[in-house]
Each structure stands twice: as structure tokens, then as C-alpha cells.
Amino acid sequence: MKKWIPGKGIFAIYQKRKTGRGPAAASVQHSGSGPLISLENLVKIYDTGAIKVMGLKKINLTIERGEFVAIMGHSGSGKSTLMNILGCLDRPTLGHYYLDGVDTAQMTPDELSDIRNRKIGFVFQSFNLISRTSALKNVELPMTYARVPKAKRMARAAMLLNRVGLGARKEHMPNELSGGQRQRVAIARALANEPPLILADEPTGNLDTASSIEIMELFTKLHEEGATVVLVTHEEDIAAFAGRIIRFSDGQIQSDELNPGKGQEIVSPGQAFASPSSPVPAAKGGTYAD
Asked: CA 153, CA 145: separation in Å to the nearest integer?
């Protein structure tokens, strides 16, 4: 694994663009009404019949509202297993997962589906947009499942696309957008139902450097305005944008540290979902990197 070196890489480019200098340490202030995520003795066992594999081993973890957290680890470390459980895509074998005060560990598939729609916004590496549907309709989709009235969801989808700098491209199809623009649509879609948690799984994995910086700038701005963001990445430069970095190895937490190069101030949740006084600058048209 490459070690992140201050002054180099994607995060350093972002810092220099923003401040004219490299990363600097900042104080960390915690506030809020309680943890958004709480894991208690969480265990995940994969039973293949012949053998049993421990995917996660008694994980205890708390993430406060308004944090920006990066989860790192090599292949097989357990980070993807954890992300699936945090996203209510899978259930733990043992232990408890409290999301927004609700224990999800024993929920039925239908209950988990409802939790996913109301409380979690997903951003994936491959965007997962519907190819024959406009950007506006893609952002509307979670609200359609939530039975939001048509006029309201159209207005909100248009506002969110404007929020991520794509207001002028709302009628474009995904194949008419660059990789960075597609990921902006995916982020707008993730915000559609005002979920308390944004989960991003390798969101810059298919993007070039310029587009990666644009997307991470957007996540940073959403966090600054109150969103709770949990990011899975294997790239040190991308993790450097987060205020807290958790490293996994062999199904266990290897380290859990505040990021000295990125101050983390936890602010009031909900601000990220309101109509902004000024939108994020329009996408600069990054390219899709195969």
C-alpha cells in the first residue's frame, strides 16, 4: 500500500487550489445530538459449507452525525463487508448495528429496503444510473419509490442538479455526460430523500484526476454543510479529504485516527439538503477513465 505523503497527490492539488498552500493541521470540534452509526460486537461469518470464514470480527464503532469518514483496507480486509452492512445490503451474523437509533440487525428484507430508501444515499464507483433516462429522472427515482408527489419530486430533483452544478444538463442522458458529471448526478440522487447518511463506495474509481478532485470537493462541501459521509476507498489521496480515517485488516479495525491534514468540524445535520444560497460551481467536463 502506498503511503500518502503531504504535499503530493490529489488532496494536495485540492489544498493548493483552495488555499494556495499545502495541507495544514486544524482543530477538531465535535458536536451533535448523538451517534448516527453505532456498531456493537458486530460479527459477520460466511458459511461456505466446508468452512466458515470470519468476514468481520467483533467490530465496535461509532460515527457521529456530521462526520466525514474514510474506510480503507486491502482486498479481503473486511471494508466491503462493513460497507454492505452499513448500507443495509446485508445483515450481521452476530451483534448490533444501530442506524439513526434503529437496530437493523434483525430486520426483514422489506424493512431493510425501507431503511435504505429513507435513511441512506448511495454513491457507487460505476454510477449506477439508468441509461435511457434523463439526469432529472434519475434523481427523481428514489423519491418515486418514496411516493413523493410528481410536482414536488421534479422540483426537488431540479434543485439538487443545480446544487451539484448540472442544472443546465438536467435533460441530458447519462451517455451525454462525462464521468465526473455522471457521478454528480449520482450524488444528487443520493441526496433526494434527505437521508442522514451518504455512503460512497470508491466514488472516484472510474474518474481521472481532475474529475476526482471535483467530486471530492463536492463531498467536502456537503460535509461542511452538515452531511454525514462515509467513504470506502483504497486511495490514500482520496482518504485524505476525510476528517477521520479507519483502516481495516483481516476483518478487524487496525487503526482509527483523526486526519491531521484535514480538520473535522461537525455541524448541524440537514443543511446539506436545503436549497443553497449559491450552487457548487458547474462541472468542468472531466473525462471517463476506462
From this structure: 11
> Rounded to an integer, what distance in angstroms lies between the CA atom of residue 8 and that of residue 14?
10
pTM of the model: 0.77
**Rounded mean pLDDT, 218-232:** 93
Secondary structure letter of residue 93 according to DSSP: S
Those residues with Cβ within 8 angstroms of residue 184's Cβ, 6 or more apart along the chain or in another chain: 164, 165, 166, 214, 215, 218, 283
Grid cell listed for 84: 454492505
E strands of 106-196, at which residues?
120-124
Three-state DSSP class for 238?
helix
Contact status, residue 3 vs residue 56, Cβ threshold 8 Å: no
Distance between first and last Cα of the chain? 22
Give Cα 91 distance to the centre of its chain: 19
Alpha carbons 250 and 54: distance in angstroms, whole number: 9
SS3 call for 266: coil
DSSP single-letter state for residue 73: -
Contact 267, 243 (CB under 8 A): no
pLDDT in tens, 69-108: 999 999 889 999 999 999 999 999 999 999 998 999 888 8
d(CA 167, CA 150): 18
* Integer Cα distance of 35 and 98 in angstroms: 9
Residues 180 and 198: their CA atoms lie apart, in Å, by: 18
- The alpha helices in 229-282, defined as continuous H runs, are 236-239
